[in-house]
Design goal:
Blueprint (H helix, E strand, L loop, with lengths): L1 E5 L8 H16 L4 E6 L4 H6 L3 H14 L4 E6 L15 H4 L11 H6 L5 E4 L13 H7 L5 E4 L8 H4 L1 H10 L2 E5 L5 H4 L6 E4 L11 H8 L14 E3 L6 H8 L1
């Protein structure tokens, strides 16, 4: 089976992780052993303008994400294959939770290379749509344990987990709890039912992709809901990331 992620239509971002889950779903429906992914790199002008590091993202974000799908046998640049989009609403629970559905996961080598943290807090700190960014002061005040880890956004800090997405995935997999505001990299946790996460600030009405209308269209959920594929320990929190709200969820 061959699928195509078309950058003329899709973002060079963690949306690709949802696309990969949809590829796995199609593989399972067709009872095939594996699938291949081509990336159409003829990127739209919109994403050329809005994602300044899009060239870097193809080999350093999209390729590693594909290779973290156990049944993906290869990823390359090309135009061949079926386009599936990137909407969570198209994932079916009866297939997603099938024992034969293989989710995003880091390799044993990556898992062995990182420690296990009690809490991993990921900041969104981007120049694009800054109203979506994390309330860093509140997070710093709420978490000060010796076994807590703060991860900055890719744009904000040159760090190993920002350069190597598989190590970031391994950190999330081994953490007791992962904390976010709504941000692309949360897809690493959302698309693995064995990873605990809590995501604040789901809705930012001034930004198109975080309006309740778009969230309902893409995920099939309403205000107050968590994703339909969420397990126990996985939760959307429809509140701002204030110190009081974080402490309440932290317990």
């Amino acid at each position: 089976m061959i699928f195509n992620y078309d950058l003329g239509k899709e973002s060079p971002s963690y949306d690709f992780a949802v696309f990969l889950a949809l590829c796995e779903q199609e593989r399972l429906k067709a009872a095939e052993d594996s699938f291949y992914v081509y990336i159409n790199s003829n990127i739209s002008q919109h994403y050329r303008n809005s994602v300044y590091d899009w060239r870097w993202r193809i080999p350093h974000l999209l390729f590693p994400l594909a290779l973290m799908m156990p049944n993906c046998r290869g990823v390359a640049i090309g135009i061949e294959g079926q386009w599936l989009g990137h909407y969570l609403i198209n994932l079916k629970n009866e297939l997603y939770f099938n024992n034969n559905f293989k989710h995003l996961t880091a390799s044993k080598l990556a898992l062995d290379a990182v420690p296990a943290y009690d809490n991993v807090i990921t900041f969104r700190e981007r120049s694009l749509e800054p109203t979506r960014n994390s309330n860093k002061k509140a997070w710093w005040s709420a978490f000060n344990g010796s076994n807590d880890l703060f991860i900055q956004d890719n744009e904000a800090e040159l760090s190993l987990e920002n350069i190597n997405v598989e190590l970031r995935m391994a950190i999330y997999q081994k953490a007791k709890m992962n904390w976010f505001v709504s941000n692309g990299c949360a897809a690493l946790c959302i698309l693995n039912p064995d990873i605990n996460y809590k995501v604040f600030k789901i809705e930012t009405p001034s930004v198109g992709c975080t309006t309740i209308r778009y969230i309902n269209k893409s995920s099939g959920i309403n205000r107050g809901d968590s994703p339909r594929i969420a397990n126990e320990g996985q939760k959307y929190i429809w509140q701002e990331d204030t110190y009081e709200n974080i402490k309440r969820e932290k317990g």
